[in-house]
Amino acid sequence: MTSVEVFVGKQDIPQYEVKLDHIMTIADALVDLGNPKPVVRVLLCLHIHGPLSSKELQSNCQLRQPEISNAVNQLDEHSFIEIQKSPNKGRGRPHHIYRLCKPIDECVQHFMRETELRIQRMSKKLEDLRLLSQDL
Predict the structure, then answer these.
(1) Nearest partner of 95 among 135, 129, 136, 52, judged by Cα
(2) Which residues of the chain register pLDDT less than 70?
(3) Is 39 in contact with 75 (CB distance < 8 Å)?
C-alpha cells in the first residue's frame, strides 16, 4: 500500500487528487518535526474524508484501535475534533463519529507554534550547556 493510500483509502476522492502530494508533504513535515505519526494520520484523514468512525479511521490510517484512541484524545485536547456518539444498532457500546471542527491550516499552525516553542527551549538548553561546559 502506498503512503497516499494510507491516508485516503482505496476509494477515489476527486477533489483531493491534485492536493495529495501537498498533503503528503505536510504529513511528512509534521512527523519530521516530532509530531506523533498516528496523530498526523488521523488529522489528515479526517481532513480528506470528513467525519469517520474509529473503524473507518483504523482502515484508512492503517493504525490499531489503541493508536486511533490515543490520537483522537490528543486531537480532542487541542479542540481540533468533535466527537459525536452514534447509537449502536442492537447491543453494545455506542459508536463515535469524529470530525474536524477547525480548518486544517489552523491545526497545522498550532503544531508549528508548538515546534517553535520546543526549538526555543532547546536553544536555551544548548546555550546553558555551552556556558556550563566552559566552566569545567
Answers:
(1) 52
(2) 1-18, 90
(3) yes
Q: Where are the domains of the chain?
A: 3-134
- What predicted TM-score, i.e. pTM, was given to this entire model? 0.81
42 contacts: CB under 8 Å, gap ≥ 6: 57, 61, 63, 68, 71, 72, 75, 98
As to burial, measured by CB atoms within 10 angstroms (0-12 exposed, 13-18 middle, 19+ buried), residue 38 is: buried
**Inter-residue contact 40 to 122 (CB < 8 Å):** no
Strands (E), 1-136: 52-53, 81-86, 95-100
Enter the CATH code of domain 3-134.
1.10.10.10
